[in-house]
From TrEMBL, chain B:
It comes from Paenibacillus campinasensis. It is found in: Cell membrane. This is ABC transporter permease subunit. InterPro entries: MetI-like, MetI-like_sf, UgpAE/MalFG_permease. SUPFAM superfamilies: MetI-like.
Amino acid sequence: MRLSSGDRLFIGSIYVFLVLLAFVAFYPFWNAAVISFNSGTDTMQGGVTFWPREFTLENYKVVFKDERLIDGFIISIFRTIVGTLLSVMATAILAYGISKPQLSGRNVYMVLCIITMYFSGGLIPSYLLIRELGLMNTFWVMVVPGIINVWNMIIFRTFFRGIPAGLEESARIDGSSNWGVLFRIVLPLSGPVIATLSLFTAVYHWNDWFAPSIYISNTDLLPIQTKLQQILNANIMLEQMQNVDAAAQGRMSAMRAVTTKSLSMATMMVATIPILLVYPFVQKYFVKGVLIGSLKE
Amino acid sequence: MSLPSEIQRNPEPNRKKGPWTKLARQWDLQLMVIPAMLFIFVFSYIPMYGVLMAFQDYSLFRGFMNSPWVGFKHFVMFFEAPEFWTIMRNTLVISMLKLCIGFPAPILLALMLNEIGRRTFKRVIQTISYLPHFLSWVIVSGMIISILSTDNGSLNILLQKLNLIDEPINFMSEPKYFWGILTATNVWKEIGFSSIVYLAAIAGINPQLYEAASMDGASRVKQITAITIPSILPVVIVFLILAIGNLLNAGFEDILLLAGNPVLRDVSDVLDTYVYRIGIQNSRYSYATAAGLFKAVISVILLTLANYLARKSGNSLW
């Protein structure tokens, strides 16, 4: 099909616009990476944009030598694995139970679940509940409150209903209980949906910084995102001070190749790497996930 | 939300036995559901009940059961607080900005991506534009603050190169820039991801419509306005209505992280951040809960209104 000159101009400008948009979308990320590979004192002189001017791995060396940051990574990894396993498992079990038509009280259960999607007690009552339960300053506060995810439960339930009843029946004739059918037949058939929901849950756990910031004061237990937030927050304060006395600040930093800015960019990069590693898999699945989600509206 | 319809065809008919016998017979099935429901009860329903502390003078020592009831005292205090109108203004302005710019942006992106014939190009753009959605707000705010800073901030470098400014601007400590920065950052983070739904809606349009239109000599712009937009309009309306129901959710993490500088409080404080600051940081639990409950009540009204509108347009939410 031939395009008229007006159409060609129209589509050409869309290409130009999208290239610009992709540039704007990617540049902050790229620039942060460049600064993390550039000598901190050199970055202070300005003008570091597309490429490192004084390449160094010093920032990363400092990050990997900092035990507090390493501890943060370990906590984050641990939290992500434990939180994802528990949540996906518990949610799948609930969803399987609710997907069974013979379950008595099924409608009541379902309504009770759905109500929680629209109403919540809000920040303060939840905070006080966590206090009352003695979960403050424990590792479990990052994992336990979110174990049952109603949204994921509905997606699981929809998927489980699509599994041919015959498959389950044959297992039942062989004497399997409901639990046996779930673990031996249903879950092995649910690979794609388990993968999708696990990825989403894992990304949530890796990225969450707020819950630990209010529930955990013991710095040894803080995940990397919360530690990073505290570092960045301290940096903003530092920058304010810097504006007051730029010269003194400059002299102080000139003694080290690493500045708070270059260091926080390196930490940011390291905290992003797990996301970048799973991103190709996430991308393969999330379009499906988003569409299942929006169909249930 | 459609509720299951096949409850009637119960495969194990209840042979005149009491409900307890039936429960006992399916104990293994109930065992899958009841622990999880207890969980939901503890972590969702107890806090909902706890909202009543907005009508108390709650103190940690007395606990919920023994704290005195004070009626609407905290609500009155909140409405009369000098910051009330600032908070309401910020909440509404920020969420209107997000709605007016953040809502149409992904639709425009989806329309543009649909005009792209080259698959690889399209895929690359999509991959890049989805990525920020998966980064935490901590990382995103760190990047944005770095780009806008006076210390090797790229935007200042660019503006200086273009000779638009002489001295670098400290964007993050000027209240007049905050709303713009916040809106732009949100659009930047979510534009790609939000476009997925619209791309799916566009993919569902019958291609014959376009063939017929181009036979008739309709230009690409004409095809967009006459075919694509009317076809995806139902989806757009549903999402617009949902957005109206969310009008008081002006944002939380993004504001908390981007407005780290206290100078910005006059333009950045919204209902949610106020509840956090007063409740968690200043430990005024009952007062903060009252402010939160005020927000929740308005939100329910907005959601009901939105659903009424949805039903009128034939797209009810529940």
